[in-house]
Design goal:
The chain is mainly alpha-helical. It has helices at residues 49-55, 111-123, 130-140, 145-151, 155-166, 173-177, 182-193, 204-215, 220-243, 249-273, 282-290, 300-308, 330-342, 348-360, 364-367, 397-406, 434-444, 448-462, 465-472, 476-485, 493-499; strands at residues 40-42, 45-47, 59-61, 68-70, 73-74, 81-82, 104-106, 109-110, 375-378, 381-384, 391-392.
Length: 501
């Protein structure tokens, strides 16, 4: 078997920019590389920017004086970090404002105090609004405030902060709704995460705006039935889900497809036959379904609602069953498992997500919502809760999960390191969007549905489908359906088990 899967499209997983090269023979005292730009000249020698940054961000107990301090120096005997006093570095790293020993950023200010000054300048002074005051505190408390300094250089970010400061934009959900773009969503997520704004479903307001945009420009014959369908069927149901705290991304995605296909059908019906939803015939629907892609069958829900509302009781659209079920071969699945475990074609979080798909047949829309609490790393081995009871995690995948848990991304900015999600988002308090993971793995070359079908198909060959369903969070009906597709009804299990050693 070829260890490299067919169609592999690796990504560059090297983080950061490459080190600049210098033509001068001027090596750094710590890393030995030539210094393109001098950062410091200390008793131990000259330091490059990268080594200087690491030095002034190292904190702990000095092994010489046993004080908890910044440890920019290195002990000559064993290269252990030591404080500036013991290293005889002629720099006082204490901030002149907060007296915290930290890297200097502007004059004798630490980076957090410099950042606070910049934010106050954009907001027009120290804000009196508690929400804005808390926002400044949250941004300055980030684990890596240097990234906030870079973020606020954006013209859009500066315009947003100035609007919040002068009152043109209210520090509320409604105010941020009036400003389109990622900076507003970033601030909204951060303020929700820190309790400065009430929690709100992130998808419902966008869906409401989408419906209004979808209805604009439609004739009355098309707009009225679509508005009834979108508002009284989909929007009411999704609002109830949002109020109950149920995830709405999936239902909204499905609702958008059904509304879009309904609009297409009614526009075609009106332009072709001058008929409406009330006068539509079964022959019209059959012609529409036969002449286009299978996504047209999404109009079925509209006619179910129309029949219930007595708008049209003459049309019936049958359920559509998939005619094919894509699946990888077992060799392809094993090749992808080998690549994600040992290769460098993708970064660590997406390799872990892909392994949960390939090993445990977990849908990626579910994978991104996993909290870290599902992982139990005991002395006897690692287990993970995907269904009603824990499932063992074999090596080397267990080591991959440990590595990921120790270095989860997106925890060093405004959200802080306390995110409960296994795959944290760049937006504070949220997990990665499933489309982000799906697109990364698709771009890599993984057939997502084929991988999931093959994984569950192999699992139901090894264990009774009912046990697989309980372990992986599937329904028993789905597990037995995959067992039938794998040509292994579990009635054969007893005989096969007797023959097996």
């Amino acid at each position: 078997m070829d260890p490299k899967p067919t169609g592999l499209s690796p990504r560059s997983t090297v983080q950061g920019r490459p080190r600049a090269r210098s033509t001068r023979d001027d090596p750094c005292a710590r890393c030995g590389r030539n210094i393109p730009r001098l950062a410091a000249n200390w008793p131990e020698g000259r330091l490059c920017n990268i080594c200087y940054y690491d030095a002034v961000h190292t904190r702990g107990t000095c092994p010489e004086c046993l004080q908890d301090r910044l440890l920019p120096g290195l002990r000559a005997t064993d290269r252990q970090p030591i404080c500036s006093t013991c290293a005889e570095i002629p720099v006082d790293f204490h901030c002149e404002r907060c007296d915290v020993e930290a890297a200097r950023h502007r004059g004798r200010l630490c980076v957090r105090c410099a950042l606070r000054d910049d934010l106050h300048g954009l907001l027009g002074g120290v804000p009196s609004d508690p929400a804005l005051l808390g926002l400044v505190d949250a941004l300055c408390a980030s684990d890596r405030p240097e990234s906030i300094l870079v973020w606020k250089r954006s013209a859009k970010v500066q315009e947003l902060l100035r609007g919040l400061g002068n009152g043109a934009i209210a520090a509320s959900h409604e105010g941020l709704d009036s400003v389109a773009g990622k900076p507003a969503e970033h601030l909204r997520a951060l303020m929700q995460h820190h309790g400065l704004l009430p929690s709100r479903d992130p998808y419902l307001p966008r869906f409401e705006n989408w419906i209004q945009a979808k209805l604009d420009g439609l004739s009355d014959e098309v707009r009225q039935p679509v508005q009834y369908f979108a508002t009284w069927h989909h929007l009411r149901r999704i609002r109830a889900k949002a109020g109950a705290g149920t995830p709405t991304r999936g239902p909204i995605h499905s609702a958008k497809q059904e509304i879009t296909e309904t609009v297409k059908f009614l526009v075609w019906l009106h332009e072709t036959y001058q008929r409406t939803a009330a006068t539509c015939t079964q022959q019209d629907v059959d012609e529409w379904l036969a002449a286009g892609p299978t996504t047209r069958s999404a109009i079925r829900t509209f006619f179910v609602v129309a029949k219930h509302a007595r708008l049209n009781t003459a049309v019936t659209v049958q359920h559509r069953s998939a005619k094919s079920s894509p699946s990888l071969s077992q060799d392809q699945r094993l090749a992808w498992i080998h690549e994600l475990l040992t290769g460098t074609s993708e970064s660590l979080p997406y390799r872990v997500a892909g392994m949960l798909l390939l090993l445990y047949a977990q849908p990626l829309v579910k994978v991104v919502t996993f909290p870290t609490s599902i992982v139990d790393d005991a002395d006897s081995g690692m287990s993970i809760v995907l269904g009603t009871h824990p499932t063992d995690v074999p090596e080397p995948f267990a080591s991959l999960i440990r590595e990921h848990l120790a270095a989860r991304p997106n925890l060093r900015t405004g959200a802080g390191p306390d995110s409960p999600w296994l795959f944290p988002s760049t937006l504070a308090g949220r997990h990665l969007h499933p489309n982000t993971v799906m697109n990364r793995l698709r771009d890599l070359g993984v057939n997502l549905l084929g991988a999931r079908n093959r994984a569950i198909g192999e699992l139901v060959l090894e264990c009774p489908p009912s046990l697989v369903a309980e372990a992986l969070g599937y329904s028993a009906e789905v597990a037995f359906l995959h067992a039938d597709k794998a040509a292994e009804p579990w009635a054969r299990y007893a005989g096969r088990a007797i023959r097996s050693p």
